[in-house]
Amino acid sequence: MTVTATCIHATAAGADLTKGTVTRRDLRPDDCLVAVRWSGICHSDIHTVNGDWPHDNFPMTPGHEIVGTVLETGTAVTRYRVGDVVGIGCMVDSCGECTACARGEENYCLDGLTGTYNGVDRHDGSVTQGGYSTHIVCREDFLIRMPDVDGGLDGATMAAMTPLLCAGITTYSPLKHWEVGPGSRVAVVGMGGLGHVAVQIAAALGAEVTVFSHSLSKKEDGLRFGASHYVATGGDAADTFHRDHADEFDLILNTVSAPLPVHRYLGMLAPDGTLVMLGLPTEPLSVRVNQLTGRRRGIAGSSIGGIAETQEMIDFCAAHGITARVEVVTAAGAGGVDAVNDAYRRVLGSQVRYRAVIDARTL
Ligand code: NAP
Ligand code: ZN
Fold first, then answer.
1. Beta-bridge partners for 68
2. Whose atoms come closest to the Cα of 43: which ligand?
3. Residue 269 CA to chain centroid, in angstroms?
4. Which of 26, 202, 339, 356 can bridge 207 by disulfide, Cβ–Cβ 3.0-4.6 Å?
5. Is residue 35 over pLDDT 80?
6. DSSP E strands: which ranges in the chain?
7. Which intervals hold domain Enoyl reductase (ER) (predicted)?
């Protein structure tokens, strides 16, 4: 069945979002049609819509934190049935053959992963369209099974688990890769969508967590999320905050969407510590090499996680009661899209606490 879905999309770089429609493909044998229930707003959506990462694929429907139910299954689907509650994150396909895919790291597919939106479908060459939409089609291998939670699909807990499909895996994966556990000293820079989930996961893994944030305005929340320390990096502290924390951290996760004075954060790494760049500003980095050599420090990047690891993360968060703190955006009626545009502006102003999630049923 070809489905014409209602969506919220961008028609040009930097323009306000508008309502539209997107045609979902007929199911291939290994596809599922999913009725979208919740759709998170990640800062990457805003980078893409605003043209921070230039592209010509307009109109474009963003959205890569998606939860919904399976409405229809392709003839070869074996693991999902109609009615199952599933998640979709940042990718919907990969080559399946390279060494990265063979390791279960489809996110590092050497042939390039297929993004959930603004990607190129490997079979028909069309541009993929994301989750700000009533329906989406996805290969079963790229679906995540969502747990049974209080309130079920329609409940507040499921809305709050939705951002884990990007913000959760993006922070869980490096915390696991760099073997964070009891005794680890972890810093999280920026407490927005990614950062507030990172604090919770790192604390649940047993780390001692310090947040570095613009100001102390979110300090109480940060401590409630599991941080032991909360440090302001702006205002009067801007030129000094790093001195009190020299050589302190085994791992620093930088979740900030804007360029930062990286040398200050490198100086806070303990010997053998690593600064992991998760935020994606476009400006190149400049690093003085002796800041690395003098303590055998590393600087690295990390991008989401593989499908098996995403499932592991969802199960870990369910077991530890970790969810995002969300503001639900309803988008009903002709003016409903204004609420999403307003959410974009509030994300850019660091005002959302801590992730906006669209109630896709109101589309
Ligand atoms: P977000 O909700 O907007 O959070 C970013 C946080 O960074 C803000 O809450 C703020 O925290 C801090 N910040 C923002 N502007 C700043 C500035 N000019 N100077 C200092 N701090 C600033 O964004 P998000 O959704 O968490 O995404 C964060 C970044 O990660 C984006 O660039 C996004 O594209 C990227 N991302 C990467 C991956 C990946 O796989 N690597 C996946 C998803 C997203 P405080 O108020 O606490 O300072
Ligand atoms: Zn994202």
1. 36, 86
2. 1
3. 25
4. 202
5. yes
6. 3-9, 18-24, 31-41, 66-73, 85-88, 91-93, 114-115, 135-139, 144-145, 185-189, 208-213, 229-232, 249-254, 269-277, 298-301, 326-330, 355-359
7. 14-358
Place of tokens 């947040």: 211
Name the residue among 42, 64, 46 with its Cα closest to residue 128.
64
| CB-count exposure of residue 15 (10 Å: 0-12, 13-18, 19+) | middle
| Cβ–Cβ under 8 Å, residues 117 and 63 | yes
List pLDDT tens digits, range 142-169: 999 999 999 999 999 999 999 999 999 9
Six-digit token string for 105: 């790291």
Alpha-carbon separation of residue 203 from 103, 113, 200, 225 (angstroms): 27, 30, 5, 8
CB 40 within 8 A of CB 117: no
Q: Ligand 2 is a single-atom ion; what residues have CB below 5 A from it? A: 42, 44, 166
Closest by Cα among 106, 131, 93 to 359: 131
Integer Cα distance of 138 and 116 in angstroms: 9
C-alpha span between 22 and 302 (Å, rounded): 31
- Which atom of ligand 1 lies closest to the CA of 354? 2
- Rounded to the nearest angstrom, the distance between the alpha carbon of 178 and the centre of ligand 2 is 21
Task: Give the residue, by CA position, lying nearest to ligand 1 atom 44.
Answer: 44
